Amino acid sequence: MRVLVVEDFPPLREALVQGLEEAGFAVDAAGNGEDALLHARTGGAAGAAGAGGAYDVIVLDLLLPKVDGLTVLKTLRRQECAAHILILTAKDTPEDRIKGLDLGADDYMIKPFVFGELLARVRALIRRKYEARKSQVRVADLEIDLSRRTVKRGSQPIDLSGREYALLEYLALNAGRIVSRADIWQHVYDFNASLESNVVDVFIGLLRKKIERTGKPRLLHTRRGQGYMLAEEG
User: Fold this and answer.
1) What span, in angstroms and rounded, lies between the C-alpha atoms of 72 and 58?
2) pTM of structure
3) Of 45, 97, 123, 218, which is least packed with CB atoms within 10 Å of its CB?
4) Rounded to an integer, what distance in angstroms lies between the CA atom of residue 86 and that of residue 138?
5) What is the CA radius of gyration of the chain?
6) Residue 100: which of 70, 61, 79, 122 has the closest Cα?
7) C-alpha angle with apex 129: 98 to 218, nearest 5 degrees?
8) Long-range contacts formed by 149-153: CB under 8 A, 24+ apart
9) Distance CA 81, CA 217 (A)
């Protein structure tokens, strides 16, 4: 899943980026409101045009240079930004929280904060975006625990790399739907390579080897010219 961090204080911005990346997210960052709107419009490193189209969650400070956070929030919602927005700010009065939520924020956290709580809230927003009401997603006998980031098929645990898990999580949250290579690129990976490379196909192949089982239903399907789908039926 892809997250945009908008924070003007460099040490905090870098810590948030590092923590989210270590948790398996693809992360872009902006240090002011003007750059945040540019990232949302262009898709940042993902290169997805459209207001926030590449981002699942935007973590947004309010006290930003160039364009303040509330203006960024209003602009994104006016442009029908699909990303869920978590305000992370030192502005802690009830009036501030009410205003932020009324303008379209999905959640509101006060600084100082516990990173584990922020991480849990980001994951909850992602589940909400993809309408996953539970923290476990099941496809046939494959179970993905979105909170613990664990995977098993039947009773057998499956050991995945961070990128393999991120790919499976995205496919699981879209189970039964075809996702294109561009969708996967935008929402899952940070690569210094072009979209035309075969990086996504390579990771699909690695993931398929780990989750498929002889004698059991095939779960990861390729749709030529369209993309990939995680589903019990082909």
Assistant:
1) 11
2) 0.81
3) 218
4) 27
5) 18
6) 70
7) 165
8) 149/24, 151/211, 153/211, 153/213, 153/216
9) 38
Q: Give the integer Cα–Cα distance in Å for 177 and 229.
A: 6
Mention every residue, 6+ apart, whose C-beta is less than 8 A from residue 48: 42, 54, 182, 186
pLDDT for residue 185 is more than 80:
yes
The CATH class that applies to domain 136-230 reads mainly alpha
- The answer to whether the beta carbons of residues 127 and 115 sit under 8 Å apart is no
Q: Where are the domains of the chain?
A: 2-129, 136-230
Q: 132-177: per-residue pLDDT in tens? A: 777 889 999 999 998 888 999 998 999 998 889 989 999 999 999 9
The strand order across the sheet containing 107-110 reads: 26-30, 2-6, 57-60, 84-89, 107-110
- Asked if residues 168 and 211 have their Cβ atoms less than 8 Å apart, the reply is yes
Instruction: Report the alpha-carbon distance of residue 189 to residue 7 in Å, rounded.
Output: 22
Q: Looking at this protein, which amino acid is placed at residue 103?
A: L
Let me know how long the chain is: 234
CATH T-level assignment (fold) for domain 2-129 = Rossmann fold (3.40.50)
